[in-house]
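Protein modeling request. Please complete all fields; requests missing the sequence field cannot be processed.
Requester role: graduate student
Desired output: 3D structure, token encoding
Chains: 1
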Amino acid sequence: MLPSGSRMRRGEEFADAVRKGGRAGRPTLVAHLRVPPEPGETDDPPLVGFVVSRAVGGAVVRNRVKRRLRHLMRERLDRLPRGSLLVVRANPPAASARSERLAAELDVALDRLLRRRESPETRMDGRR
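Delivered output (128 residues):
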């Protein structure tokens, strides 16, 4: 399970990540990442929140999707910069997606978001 100190709970944090952060969409999920202006100056852990609407399914299905996403994010938490806010919104196909597909799409979304915030000079792969 995701550590308690890394779980987003306040509505303002969700709104800040969605409105001011970058966005990367995939068929099963959409990720919004807000990185503080000076990420190296904060000791706050990254916070992660999940949005699973009724369009995904009934209460049992929504809770299952949230549990699966929390489990996947626990393994990827160290990739996020300190003090960042990440909101993962599940789309309706997430209800029937296998865990491997959810993991792959979460990785792609995170890679895109983290790559966007790198400047061209600091990229390791040499691309611009």
